[in-house]
Amino acid sequence: MGEGTPGPSLVSAKRSLFNSQVDKATLEIKSLNPYQNKYTIRARVTHKGELRSWSNSRGQGKVFNVTFEDKSGDIQATGFNDQAEKFHPLLEVGKVFYLSHAQVKPVHNRAFNQTSHNYELTLNQNSLLVECLANTDDVPTVSYQFTPIHDINFKSDKDAVDVLGVCSKVSELREVIGKSTGKALKKRDVTLMDENESTISLTLWQDQAETFEGLHKIVTCKNAVVSDFNGKSLSASFKSRLEVENLDLPEAQALRKWFDSNNMARKTAAMSGTPQSGNIDQLHDEFTSFGMINLEFMGTQINARYYNVDAVIAHLNGDKLTYKACTEDNCKAKVTESGSNTYFCKKCGKSDSKFTYRYLMRGHALDVTDHQWFTAFDEVASEIMGLSATELMALKDRSDADFARKLDSIQYERYLFRVKCNMETYNDENRLKMVILKAAKVEPGSPAHIERLRNALKDA
Ligand SMILES: [Zn+2]
Q1: How far is the CA of 451 from the centre of ligand 1 (A)?
Q2: Shortest CA distance to 166 belongs to which of 202, 203, 194?
Q3: 178-196 pLDDT tens trace
Q4: ipTM score of the complex?
Q5: For a tag on the chain, would you pick the N or C end, based on fewer CB atoms within 10 A?
Q6: How far is the CA of 94 from the centre of ligand 1 (A)?
């Protein structure tokens, strides 16, 4: 150890001296201003950004942001270069620190500052940061205003929401090119589910995407950004705060209990289509009927629920079975013909000479108890028809009679369906909406089918 470096005992002695003396002199965050040079704040780290590299005409270096909060308010601090490298590893979300000698300046760019403060802090070489080891119960932890997942449907694009859900699916890590920067970004989609079995996709970025390990854990995200992509989805931003399995929150405890006591880990694996789900026949003990589903929804406000049913297709709406769709990756929007061989996609805002057919199947299914209207999207409808939408339309082009025969061949075919049901209001009337998520044709003599029937009898 070099002569100029104090030994560990001296550091801790200084630290405890600091801890005992500094308390009386702390200033509330809301009182910080540029005319106040001597101050110490005592505040909890509620957000810590990644250590990022920057480069421009003046050079290059590192930068990170951190948000401190006490009961008076919050303020953002930024560290550049040496200060970024020094302070970034010391700070930890959830811990309380004393901070002094950081420069107080007006907020430089509101777009990069999430706090309500008019000023922000810059960490410099004189800044002093010490963790508060005493009782910190008086410093508030992050407060959440959770929006139920179903209600996110009523939020607008780019709204910020606090969301709580159990992670029912974790997608692969992917790399995309950032629109504004042109740089490669790592992203990962995770699916969150709440007690109503409502689900939503949350996109994580960079470090958070790379290190996420939260399957079947409780995930909270403060300030997730609503996107209109694919129905509604959420994206974490630099303003967001992600927590995995923080069971200090009563809402998180309740969700944990619900998930475990309903054996949801197994059920979500079955509905998410991940490899461990096996096939639909393995769900034999959880089949229900249209009659039971309607009873369950009668006069209630419950959100979407998932079921397995055994039913026949009674009727398909043959006129509107397919639509002309945009060929861009991940864009499934309908295109309109805007000239000869020109198709315009409103969502992408561009014209193309190509389109692709996709299914939007609507029809009517029957089981022994009731009948039910359903919708099936492209993938499932292809399974039901045994043809892609493009193949079906080619068949129709060749022969209307063959097309009609193909539709007839589906009628009264029996399937095991995985369905998602919810109540929707149409012309002031409540009606049950059913989307088919998976379909498996019943082969009456197959061993799997016989075993399923046996099990159903056992349960009855
Ligand atoms: Zn498009």
Answers
A1: 45
A2: 194
A3: 777 788 889 999 999 988 8
A4: 0.97
A5: C
A6: 43
